[in-house]
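Quick note —
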Amino acid sequence: MLLLAGPGYSTDIVANYLTAKTPNLVVVVEDPQSRAVLARRRARRVGWLSAVGQVLFVALLLPILRHRGARRRAAILDGASVDTTRRAPSHRVPSVNDDRTISLLASLQPDLVVVHGTRIIAKRVLASASCPVVNMHAGITLRYRGVHGGYWALAEHHPDWVGTTVHLVDPGIDTGGILAQTTFEISDEDTIATYPDLHLVQGLPLLGSQVDKAMSGTPLNPLPAGLAPGSGFYYHPTIWGYIWRRWRDGVR
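Predicted structure written out below.
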């Protein structure tokens, strides 16, 4: 089995969880993307005003929220008994879409590829995988694609749609067949800085179940429908949008 991931502590958690199921796990981690490149790409999609507001949220406000939520984040991870041990990846690639990734997929021939926290995977990379490719998404798809699915469900007054999805990866963005979904409640201690940890610990058992199926040779069959209707794509909130929703609706 192969884990194709972005850098970060959550990748360590997912890798350690999967290693407990299959000790021959190969971990391939891509280099982080340039914030400047991300900002320019985002501006082409949503306009410079929204892109600047999102950058300001990520650069200025989110670090404060993470610092203030550190104790809550630790409690979430401790309560789930996840292994947070740092681990070195088996391979590093400049990008998930680099030719080296394709070469690794061809040489390793994994039975399953698990994706976690990478940039959007190119069609040619997906086509080079001769096995199912699965992702654990922080949100209920197809309704909440993109990032911060739990936050946007709350912002749209749908607390019953705060949850995690495990799905097959296709050439779209979080549009692949849904394999499993779960919803969960948040507490008054939680904010947009702790929602990702809740998504993670709630999703690991779902991911583990699909891994067990794949390792036993059982086909991964998508569910007939998701928990929430519709399809939407979401980015980071702007700094002013987050402050406004927090003041008006208490969405943290």
